[in-house]
Amino acid sequence: MSYIAYAWLTPIFYGIGSIAAKLSSKYQVPNPWLFNFIWTVITLLCIAPLALINHVGWPQDWGSIVILGLTGAVSGTLYILSLKALDVSVLSPFYSFRTPMVAILGVILFGEILTTMQIIFIGLIFFAGLFVSVDERMSIRSFFRPEIGLAFVTIISSALFNTAVKNASLHNSFWSVTFWSTLLTLIFILPTLPLFYRELVTTRVSRYQGIFWSTILLTLGLLTSYKALGQNVSISIAIMTLPLSMVFAFIISRIAPKLLEKHTGKVYAVRFAAAAVMFLAALGLSR
Predict the structure, then answer these.
(1) How far apart, in whole angstroms, are the C-alpha atoms of residue 32 and residue 115?
(2) How far apart are CA 21 and CA 114, in angstroms?
(3) Contact by Cβ (8 Å): 238, 286
(4) End-to-end alpha carbon distance in the chain
(5) What is the full per-residue pLDDT of the chain (287 aa) written as tens digits?
(6) 3-class secondary structure for the chain?
(7) How many CA atoms lie within 13 A of 42 on its CB side?
(8) pTM, two decimal places
(9) Distance CA 7, CA 178 (A)
(10) What is the distance between the alpha carbons of residues 171 and 145, in angstroms, rounded to a whole number?
(11) How many Å apart are CA 177 and CA 64, to the nearest integer?
(12) What are phi and psi of 283, to 5 degrees?
């Protein structure tokens, strides 16, 4: 398949996986540090057999793999913390910020020059982002709170992670990148063990079911994103930021409002309108 097909599969897997992860973190494993550890372990257990079947070897460039593992640990941890702190319908469209973040990083790190139209698209994304987190008070003040700051840091780390994937893919095979970076990610999050080790030994295995299924879906999303990003970064990121988990969260809010999140139709209308502007601007920016 082409990188575009992989890029379109990614938000589908991530969308459903994010909903499963949110439900699991809310009802089964509320400690985000324990959640993050179990999530990473299961991800590695899913990837390892596939990597072995495909004869994974030693990386040709360890430096890029180490950087990828580190950025993966940071971005994954921040994602779990943000997922716990925010509605899915808020966090999901925030990933449209990855495209302008990558463009800005290109200017800072590589001296790239933005066109006037690209600057306009970046401005649109940031302006629309002010409205994606509105609540029933309909005030953009809801944007200026610590949880949104955490989401921004998460997006920045995600942009760095995507850049690291591209860099590692230039020097190593697909399975070397996937397996060794995931193993290093697990190693890098081991220092957080004191934050959850007591719960790790007392929590029943059955409570990890939600994490297991969300991890399967998120791992599939990870693999398809690696395939897409390994061939093209800008267009892939624009497609991958399609906020499908926001759509799924809205559907669940109508069917079972007490299960995940509940807001008025007016709130969701504003959030969807802002998300649409952000996505279309991100798509235009990537061209």
Answers:
(1) 41
(2) 37
(3) yes
(4) 21
(5) 778 889 889 989 988 988 998 899 888 999 999 999 999 999 999 899 999 999 999 999 999 999 999 999 999 999 999 988 888 888 888 877 877 877 787 787 767 788 888 889 989 988 888 888 888 777 777 777 888 889 889 988 988 888 898 889 888 998 999 999 999 999 999 999 999 999 988 888 888 988 999 988 988 888 898 888 777 777 777 787 778 888 888 888 888 888 888 888 888 898 899 888 988 888 787 76
(6) CCHHHHHHHHHHHHHHHHHHHHHHHHHCCCCHHHHHHHHHHHHHHHHHHHHHHCCCCCCCCHHHHHHHHHHHHHHHHHHHHHHHHCCHHHHHHHHHHHHHHHHHHHHHHHCCCCCHHHHHHHHHHHHHHCCCCCCCCCCHHHHCCHHHHHHHHHHHHHHHHHHHHHHHHHHCCHHHHHHHHHHHHHHHHHHHHHHCHHHHHHCCHHHHHHHHHHHHHHHHHHHHHHHHHCCCCHHHHHHHCCCHHHHHHHHHHHHCCCCCCCCCHHHHHHHHHHHHHHHHHHHHHHC
(7) 20
(8) 0.81
(9) 16
(10) 40
(11) 9
(12) -65, -40
Nearest Cα residue to 97 out of 140, 17, 160, 164: 160
- The encoded tokens of residue 18 equal 């994010």
- Whole-angstrom distance, CA of residue 229 vs CA of residue 59: 18
Look at residues 72, 270, 220 and name the one whose alpha carbon lies nearest to residue 154.
72
User: Alpha-carbon distance 153 to 224, whole Å?
Assistant: 24
Are the C-beta atoms of residues 182 and 165 closer than 8 Å to each other? no
* Contact of 159 with 105, CB cutoff 8 Å: yes
Q: How far apart are CA 75 and CA 279, in angstroms?
A: 21
